[in-house]
Specification:
InterPro entries: CheY-like_superfamily. It comes from Pseudomonas chlororaphis. This is Chemotaxis protein CheY. The chain has about 160 residues and is α/β, with parallel strands linked by helices. It is about 30% helix and about 20% strand. It has a single domain, classed as Response regulator (Rossmann fold), CATH 3.40.50.2300. The protein contains five helices and seven strands; from the N terminus they run E-H-E-H-E-H-H-E-E-H-E-E. The longest helix is centred in the first third of the chain and has 13 residues.
Length: about 160
Amino acid sequence: MPNKTLRILIADEQHFHRMKIERVLNQLGYYRIAPMYRLIEVLNVVEYGSEPMDLLIINASLGLHDRLDIVAFCMDNPQIRHVLVYDSELLGVPSIPLDPQRKMYISSLPLPDQETISRLMGAIDTGRRSKTPAAGKFLSSSNEEEIAPDGIRLNAVVR
């Protein structure tokens, strides 16, 4: 059962992207979501928030416009517990094997799909138990993917 008290922030310039991610989170049972389209809004909420955000889901392009290193900002910020940066090809960040204890997840997908978000929430929400495939390789509809022991796709979630 999902922890309905998790505070989730979605940041993307595209309204369709924010709504699609929010809809997936709603289907998974998460409703405490704040969608934002400008980086300055995200910075204000993070800086002046009374309690830390449990998850920030952010498009890598937001940091490029304002020349902000999103990875460094999120890693060093105690007000952000977990981060998913997607469309990471813009950042040029290398693929690093997943560690379940990490704070940062980086996806090369232009928009995180339902499977990626579901696995991410399974790793973040410790009260939620989800079915995960065994570690190793498996064939998906798009290509062969590597699965970490905790069930998260390595080609979609790194660092």
